[in-house]
Write a structure and sequence with these properties.
Layout (H helix, E strand, L loop, with lengths): L2 E10 L4 E3 H5 L6 H8 L3 E3 L7 H16 L8 E5 L10 H9 L6 E5 L5 H15 L4 E9 L9 H4 L4 E11 L5 E9 L7 E2 L11 H5 L6 E2 L1 H22 L9 E4 L4 H11 L10 H4 L6 H11 L8 E8 L3 E8 L1
Parallel strand pairs: 4-5, 4-6, 11-12
Antiparallel strand pairs: 1-7, 2-3, 6-7, 8-13, 9-10, 12-13
Helix pairs in contact: 3-4, 8-9
Bound molecules: oxa(dethia)-CoA (UT7).
Length: about 325
């Protein structure tokens, strides 16, 4: 029997750090409000010359190095992003060329917002199992600072920029790597987090720019409630489907949107918070990059050991959600 393993991971966050104190100079907010309501102390912000693909490239290079695999071996490249370099071509094509992935590779972007990395994992997992591809590189990369209204205190304090990547391979061994993956989507909740303009429904114009409709709009409270609900459901289902209990899950890596969402999830599942990986204090919400950045850190910090079970659990605009169960 064959399995699909994560052969390497890597991450990159831009050098510039924007602290809560910096934000207090930009909008009517306070360090205390941001920390107590979201758990965020600082976030990384890309420079004016850095696009999403530049962050993606650095994370991808780190993941390939970690896996000891050269770019020439990659035949499937998926970039999950809500902030592509261009409406077209895909950011994956930009990365493919700059990284030196051969032109016979398949390269495309997916739009699943903050669930993008777990969506990419499932797609790569399925494709590798069929034998159609041999080596997949998946990347979650975002320059969210480019779609945030920096005068809107209800959103600008929450987001950051960054990228994380993983290399996936099929191995002839049973019961390791990706054990299970489950995704979901509920478009009825689309209005809770969206960007009104810049797409085909409302193309960019002087009017949309004047109205700041190119920036994201969010109903925070509604997202909060639904995030806790869907993450609890997919986490429980994944663990039950595989005849495990939460005591056997060594580490849960949730999408990093708000530490209070993670606390509520941990409480509902009855899992101690210490078994959740949390780094939102230093990065804010980096959307599709949040889980792979956390995964990379957790591995480096020795929080993941051979034989461990790790559960990834995500939610995002769409509404999208999903979970991945990994055995190392
Ligand atoms: O990846 C998915 C992306 N989005 C999310 O995951 C968002 C999920 N939701 C959340 O994280 C939380 O709902 C927020 C952090 C966005 C907001 O926290 P909250 O506890 O739901 O606060 P609230 O929206 O009820 O706002 C409470 C008060 C309001 O003032 P009034 O109406 O009570 O006078 C806001 O105007 O806090 C005010 N407020 C702020 N005050 C200082 C909102 N933003 C700020 C701010 N600084 N940055």
């Amino acid at each position: 029997m064959a399995s699909v393993i994560i052969a390497g991971v890597g991450a990159y966050t831009p050098e510039r750090i924007l602290t809560n104190a910096d934000l207090c100079k930009m909008v009517d907010t306070s360090d205390e409000w941001i920390r107590t309501r979201s758990g965020i102390s600082e976030r990384h912000i890309a420079g004016p010359d850095e696009a999403t693909s530049d962050l993606a490239l650095k994370a991808a290079a780190a993941a390939l190095k970690d896996a000891n695999i050269s770019a020439s071996e990659v035949d499937l490249l998926i970039v999950a992003t809500a902030t592509p370099d261009y409406p077209l071509p895909s950011t994956a094509c930009v990365v493919q060329h700059k990284l030196g992935i051969p032109p016979h590779a398949t390269a495309f972007d997916i739009a699943a917002a903050c669930s993008g990395f777990v969506y990419a994992l499932e797609i790569a997992y399925g494709q590798l199992l069929t034998g159609r591809y041999k080596c997949a590189l998946i990347i979650g990369a975002e320059k969210l600072s480019s779609i945030v209204d920096w005068s809107d205190r209800t959103t600008c304090v929450l987001f950051g920029d960054g990228a994380g990547a993983a290399v996936l391979k099929k191995v002839d061994q049973d019961g390791i790597g990706i054990i299970g993956s489950d995704l979901g989507a509920d478009g009825e909740l689309a209005e809770y987090l969206y960007i009104p303009a810049g797409g085909s429904r409302c193309p960019s114009s002087a009017k949309t720019v004047a109205e700041k409709s190119q920036f994201l709009r969010m109903k925070g409270k509604e997202i909060f409630k639904n995030a806790v609900r869907v993450m609890e459901t997919v986490a429980r289902e994944m663990v039950e489907q595989h005849h495990l209990t939460f005591d056997q899950i060594n580490l849960v890596i949730p999408h990093q949107a708000n530490v209070r969402i993670v606390e509520a999830l941990a409480g509902n599942l009855g899992v101690p918070l210490e078994r959740f990986y949390v780094n939102i204090d230093r990065f804010g919400n980096t959307s599709s990059a949040s889980i792979p950045i956390a995964l990379d850190e957790a591995r480096r910090a020795g929080r993941i050991k051979p034989g461990d079970y790790t559960l990834l659990v995500a939610f995002g605009a769409g509404f999208t959600y999903g979970s991945t169960l990994i055995r190392w």
